[in-house]
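User: I'm writing a short report section on ligand binding and want a predicted complex to refer to. Could you take this sequence and NDP and write out the structure as tokens? A short remark afterwards would be nice.
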Amino acid sequence: MATVEQKSVEATQNGGADGRTFAVDNPATGEHIIRLPDMDAGRVRELVARAREAQKAWAEQSFDDRAAVMYRARQWMVDNRERIAKTVMEENGKTREDAMLADVFTTADALGFWAKKASVYLADERVRSHSPFVIGRKLIVRYRPRGVVGVIGPWNYPIANCFGDAIPALMAGNSVVLKPSEVTPISSLLMEEGMRAAGLPEDVMLVATGTGETGAALIDEVDMVMFTGSTRTGKKIMGRASETLTPVSLELGGKDPMIVLRDADLERAANTAVYWGMANGGQICMSVERVYVEEPVYDEFVAKVIEKTRALRQGKPEGPGSVEVGAVTFAPQVEIIERHIRDAVDKGAQVQLGGKVADGPGRYFQPTVLTDVDHSMQIMTEETFGPTLPIMKVRDEHEALRYANDSRYGLNSSVFTRDLEKGERIARQLTAGSACVNDAVMNYAATELPFGGTGESGIGYRHGAAGIQKYCEVQALMVTRFAPKKDTFMFPYAPARSRLVERLSVLLYGRVPRKYRDR
Ligand code: NDP
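Assistant: Sure. The structure tokens for the complex follow:
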């Protein structure tokens, strides 16, 4: 088995099938790291064919056999955590804590979770039917793997959002071809190496390095696409998949609101806003992207947020505790952040802190706090995906809710109040796939809870039963044990039997149940 380092040498020398390669750079230093093959459609087809062949034997293994591989992979991740975290930090520019906690250990946790839960979520379900016509039949819902799953992932969490989605797909008995972002592909190659070390059979998980075109080619070949990335690309993915009626699961962008009510613990709310607005440099699909604060506590909240944001250290990520905010991973993102801030300032927003590209070498954007913002501004309506916190004053909870729901996205959301009943009531009215009371983002750690977006934030769920059942075809089985020679309704039709069937049907369907008669 070639290591990532060997692959890089091979790639530099040979490139993809037609010799094309692409560069991977370190955004925190600007240094060049590696060149990797830019795989074309032919190369992708070849990988999928190998994965398809390998899938048959993999699907025949028991859940326990597959789980053993996942637990060994978990141990491999922990043993190799320094190497993995260093790789993630180098190609993404994030802090050591973001790499270690959110990529290494979140994925290690997912390996154990799916190893344990796959057999539970995918167990045959015995069903009892309401229909008198199928009395005595054995009814079963069963889940079987789709075949080859194409996982296409983004650059913000090079392991958790790329390899992470391969885990339930593999536990369900699929093989996987993983297409990481061209910005951060090395981490996926490292996980391919780790899975082999853990005993995953040859070709059950393969990595297709390349650009967007490599991802597009993958869609044509696989039996399902699991995509994490921007809403814009998600729409393209769905369009392309519609050509072959290939099912898709889409985890897309977000513009997640936080509501702070007048009775909130302002210290906790401010800490949460600053942490989940700035962690991973704000490059989290469900980071706190906009905040609505009730008038009486607005000034105090803003002051706390400014003070805490000012204390953040930014720069080249080094050892534990070195900096809080790392680099902007993807170069074009700087332009988006600048455009949103410029647009807001032009329309009357105040930059309380930051607001500019920070000094290099490397690519950084200052942690930024904005006030006097409103919904005419892109910073309140478009995904910024940077270290920005726009804070808006609202009259009351109704206005907060109205603004929070004024979005084409709907991924995560949060409300802060000491009144838990009120908090839950408001959370239930937020049009987002997830809503937290006195928390943000941490719902993601409860892998039992489904995670997914409404509106333009996506289709389908990650986590929970739905997070693995989506990687399966559902097969409905009916086994008729006590079978008469002929069912009552079968040919030839006879007046008496037809009338009997009709009378029985009238008895069944011809009245409103007592409970509903007076409603
Ligand atoms: P992109 O949509 O730009 O890219 C995602 C992946 O799709 C990359 O591997 C990319 O390849 C590939 N790709 C690009 N074009 C195509 C195409 N036409 N067909 C197939 N694949 C293609 O997203 P980013 O990498 O910029 O990631 C940031 C986005 O991801 C943000 O919007 C964020 O909110 C979202 N996200 C959502 C999450 C969720 O769970 N809902 C979690 C994390 C991020 P390449 O990079 O090589 O161009």
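A remark for your report: The pocket of NDP is lined by residues 152-156, 161, 179-183, 211-212, 215-216, 228-230, 233, 236-237, 251-254, 285, 330, 383, 385, 411, 453, 458 (CB under 6 Å). The mean pLDDT is 96.
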